[in-house]
Design goal:
mainly alpha, two-stranded antiparallel ribbon, 19 helices, about 80% helix, about 0% strand, globular
């Protein structure tokens, strides 16, 4: 690998590391506040159910109004910067800011004034309107922040995204806990308390935008100087209206995947609520300290729907953490692949995609196997007051690898211009999910588990379609041993080590909270050592691939001393 290629590879992985660290922090704080919410007396699984239901409609409008913005702006800006057209990049930024400010205001107004109708008629979940209305203001500010984040990502500066996300999540964590605690202790209902929790999202989003504005103005003079010294003169006088149309035309297909996912979640919520009503219309089975309820009322069924939705949400919190880590590749790939293709360096684009897919597998596989093998002890630590539902995590974790690969391939496909493929793949996956939801959730013995089973089918189908198109368009060099066989062997051995270590430890520590905590930590540590030893012992990563990792030279030196490499 030449010197310039090595520098590009290091730059790529350093930017991945920046986003990766921020995503870890974001998801850890997200897990913290949701864990605290579940364990607050008077909120619990039911409150979490109302809290998350409000997010379904919000996520849909967020996808329509802003989710495609960062990658669309990133792609457009990176293409201009690749040919030294900083004036064009700045004009794209200004056009996007005006366009999405208007869209954000419209989305905010729709969500705020339509909250009652959406909760009662669309979601069939009366009480969710408080959460929906509380989230409405954040739509406008998310649009603004998305444009700024996308602009700096296109400049290959990931700090705007990573720093603002960390600030936003820390504020959200603190404010959510404080507001829910106050709401519960002054006697507010679960529905209103959930609304207060979602209000924290709006407040933290506003503060995050203020940080991004500060971030931009600190760098404004340097950006303007680059624009003045720009050597590219073609198409710098493109009318603002034409630019806006171009941005919109690229944002829409990139957003489609997120829009379809969000629509699917709304349908998921509706099919879950109607399916559970059908499953338990005659009797709600006993659970915990609650006796079976014959011929339940509408209110009792709504509470059971909220409880079961809360159980599913608990698994989502943990399930989304590895995906957030993997999100770094999907984000960083877009500008790097787009830049390489702009200057017709097809080999460089293919190398980035191959490498990202491999690292995604090596990151996600142990997470999925770890959740499957240690779900119960993990739930006893995190959800100590309400550990029910761990088997839902085990089930949805089967789809985790497929979801992560689809996520990475989405970034690759957007980078090479195949922006509609991720959306089309999700359409087919979501159709399968809706059908399975309708069929399975209505069966009393399956109920909420039907939603987890349908998620597996959805991700497998989506991943398969994305892979088929990407393999056709790019020179993917994916060998079975390197990308499937060796990682799977390492993961299975790690899972066996985790189970064995946990069972041995509990013989000594017992299964109390403290005993379970110690045994779980030891089991995770031993599993990590086993996985690390096998990944490098089987030489899944070549020396060049190791050195592309953040601090890769030091890691390679350490591995040589440990005799993993000669």
């Amino acid at each position: 690998m030449g010197k310039e290629k090595k520098e590009t590879a290091r730059s790529f992985m350093n930017n991945v590391a920046v986003v990766l660290v921020s995503q870890i922090i974001v998801k850890l704080f997200g897990a913290v506040y949701k864990t605290v919410l579940v364990n607050i007396q008077g909120f619990g699984d039911e409150g979490l159910g109302f809290y998350n239901v409000g997010f379904q409609i919000y996520t849909l409008l967020l996808a329509i109004s802003s989710v495609g913005i960062p990658n669309a702006i990133s792609k457009l800006v990176s293409e201009e910067v690749a040919v030294d057209n900083y004036k064009g990049a700045n004009k794209i930024f200004k056009a996007a800011l005006i366009l999405f400010s208007v869209i954000g205001l419209a989305a905010t107004a729709f969500l705020f004034f339509g909250a009652d109708y959406l909760a009662k008629n669309t979601l069939h979940f009366d009480g969710a309107q408080y959460s929906i209305r509380a989230l409405a203001p954040s739509l406008f500010f998310v649009c603004i922040s998305s444009v700024i984040r996308g602009y700096f990502t296109g400049l290959k500066n990931m700090k705007a995204t990573s720093n603002s996300q960390v600030i936003e999540q820390i504020l959200k964590c603190v404010l959510t806990i404080v507001l829910v605690y106050v709401a519960v202790h002054i006697g507010k209902t679960v529905e209103i308390s959930a609304g207060w929790a979602n209000l924290a999202t709006s407040v933290s989003t506003v503060l995050s935008v203020l940080y991004l504005i500060f971030f931009y103005y600190k760098r404004r003079s340097g950006i303007q100087e680059k624009a003045r010294n720009s050597t590219y003169s073609k198409d710098v006088n493109v009318p603002m209206r034409k630019l806006m149309l171009g941005i919109l035309m690229l944002s829409i297909p990139i957003s489609l995947g997120s829009i379809i996912t969000a629509i699917n979640r709304v349908i998921d919520t509706a099919t879950i609520s109607r399916g559970i009503e059908a499953a338990f219309a005659a009797v709600i089975p006993a659970h915990g300290d609650t006796a079976a309820i014959l011929n339940p009322s509408a209110e009792q069924l709504t509470k059971e729907i909220a409880r079961l939705s809360g159980l599913l949400s608990k698994s989502d919190i943990l399930y989304n953490m590895p995906l957030a880590i993997n999100f770094a590749f999907a984000t960083v790939l877009v500008p790097y692949v787009a830049s390489a293709l702009k200057v017709k360096d097809y080999n460089e684009a293919a190398l980035k995609i191959n490498y990202s897919l491999l690292i995604s597998i090596l990151i996600i596989l142990p997470c999925a196997i770890g959740f499957i093998t240690l779900a119960y002890p993990i739930y006893k630590i995190i959800y100590f007051a309400k550990p029910e539902g761990y088997d839902l995590l085990q089930l949805v974790s089967v789809s985790l690898v497929f979801a992560a690969l689809a996520q990475t391939m989405t970034g690759s496909l957007q980078g090479i211009g195949k922006v509609y493929v991720p959306a089309i793949s999700l359409v087919f996956g979501c159709i399968a999910k809706v059908i399975l939801n309708v069929v399975l959730i209505r069966i009393p013995s399956i109920n909420i588990y039907g939603a987890a089973i349908s998620s597996i089918a959805c991700q497998v189908i989506s991943c398969a379609i994305c892979f088929a198109v990407l393999a056709k368009e790019c020179k993917l060099k994916l060998t079975f041993g390197k990308y499937i066989g060796k990682p799977l062997l390492s993961g299975v051995a790690m899972g066996a080590a985790a189970v064995g270590a946990y069972k041995l430890c509990t013989l000594i520590t017992g299964t109390s909270f403290a005993g379970n905590f110690i045994a779980t930590i030891i089991a995770i540590g031993i599993a990590a050592v086993v996985y690390f030893a096998l990944v490098f012992g089987l030489k899944i990563l070549s020396p060049d691939e190791v050195m592309q990792l953040p601090a890769g030279n030091k890691l390679y030196g350490m591995l040589k001393k440990m005799k993993f490499y000669k």
